[in-house]
Amino acid sequence: MTSLSSIRIHPVKSTAIRLVGEADVDALGLVGDRRWMVVDGDGECVTARTDRRLFTIVADTAHTAPGLPVPLRLSAPGFGAIDVPVSGSEAIRVTVFGRALRARSASPEVRHWLQAVLQRRDVDLVQMVEPRPLNPAYAEAGEATAFADGYPVTLASESSLRQLRDWIGEGAQSALPMDRFRPNLVVTGDVAPFAEDTWRRVRIGAITFRVVKGIDRCAMTLLDPATLVSGAEPIRTLARYRKWDGATWFGVQLIPDNPGSILVGDSVTPT
């Protein structure tokens, strides 16, 4: 039997992973996932690829901390916590890897807090107003996501991670957690390593997801989210075993076919 072993939400793009026991799913992905992001002075998204201190910020919403009385709460070591109120600002133009969208800026107090944590004066926090249309080569007309890099939901299997650790060898069991790959959904059980590459659709609980493509991995996986230290793995080993089309691959991108809810422990069935 294959089942869902963890659900991961990232309320603000590139901030700390929040593990939850259940999640709602809508057309944009897991509700509450990457609906906020940090932008620079030009309105372009800032991620941990270029500013690793983002990993030190914990972001919570009512989806990750039930009962939270504000839309978003941020905290970081040495800086305490700050509540993010409902924004009344006008929508502004932002970009996600060059794709223009509209978003609303947070309050000046939140902006100043964020600038202090990241030690830079050109950043701001914005909330999604307009979803990002998906690549028509893989998606149907009207399908969109929030501030995710590619598609609404990402998935990886524990068996694939075990195989990758075996390829890397000594020390990889503890040094390469699933967190390096930041999937929304992790599956476990009777599934062969990298079997998810071959899935066309997968049913998790009462929701069916379309598997649209694999995930090409970037230098962000080289950064240990706990220590903020970079190394050669896992890209070095993925390049030996999982490289094609000029990229290295781990995990898959999903688009939900229907809304609903998922729970840790739900059965996972490729269809």
Automatic annotation (TrEMBL):
InterPro entries: MoCF_Sase_C (IPR005302), MOCOS_middle (IPR005303), Pyrv_Knase-like_insert_dom_sf (IPR011037). SUPFAM superfamilies: MOSC N-terminal domain-like, PK beta-barrel domain-like. Coiled coil: none annotated. It comes from the Bacteria. It holds the Pfam family MOSC. Residues 126-271 form the MOSC domain. This is MOSC domain-containing protein.
